[in-house]
Design brief:
Number of domains: 1
Shape: globular
Oligomer: single chain
Number of helices: 3
Structural class: alpha/beta
CATH topology: D-tyrosyl-trna(Tyr) Deacylase, Chain: A
Distance between the termini: 6 Å
Order of helices and strands: EEEHHEHEE
CATH superfamily: D-tyrosyl-tRNA(Tyr) deacylase
CATH architecture: 3-Layer(bba) Sandwich
CATH class: Alpha Beta
Strand content: 35-45%
Number of strands: 6
Helix content: 10-25%
């Protein structure tokens, strides 16, 4: 699994002109990508890493501050652009594999006590955010 994590002051995701997920206070906006051999154990590890990642003010984590997270599925994190001009999506897991694993990340975050907003898996989403810092990290588990 891969995640692109951005520290934000606010973020939202819109589908068909409607906001479907939004955080209005400082927290993390997380894009999650899944590949073919990812597991539920990796989803749990990613959630724990996100919950404890010390990138908020004064080197604190979402767990320290009860800061919210906006988690959005993002198959393009596994796009391969090494050849030609068109990305290959072969490394990205298909929806029936990826969707439950992205949901597992969200469920584990909530089990840990996080306030989590989400996008809609497979939808055409527009994401708006204010990157704070800016701080952007790539996590792999």
């Amino acid at each position: 699994m891969k995640a692109v994590v951005q520290r934000v002051t606010r973020a939202s995701v819109t589908v068909d002109g409607q906001i479907v997920g939004e955080i209005t206070e400082p927290g993390l906006m997380v894009l999650v990508g899944v590949t073919h051999d990812d597991t539920a154990d990796q989803a749990a590890k990613l959630a724990a890493k996100l919950w404890g990642l010390r990138v908020l003010d004064d080197e604190r984590s979402c767990s320290d501050l009860q800061a919210p997270l906006l988690v959005i599925s993002q198959f393009t994190l596994y796009g391969d652009t090494r050849k030609g001009r068109r990305p290959s999506w072969l490394a990205a897991a298909p929806g029936p594999v990826a969707e439950p694993l992205v949901a597992a990340v969200v469920e584990e975050l909530r089990r840990l006590g996080a306030k989590v907003e989400t996008g809609i898996f497979g939808a055409d989403m527009q994401v708006t955010l204010v990157n704070d810092g800016p701080i952007t990290l790539i996590l792999e588990v």
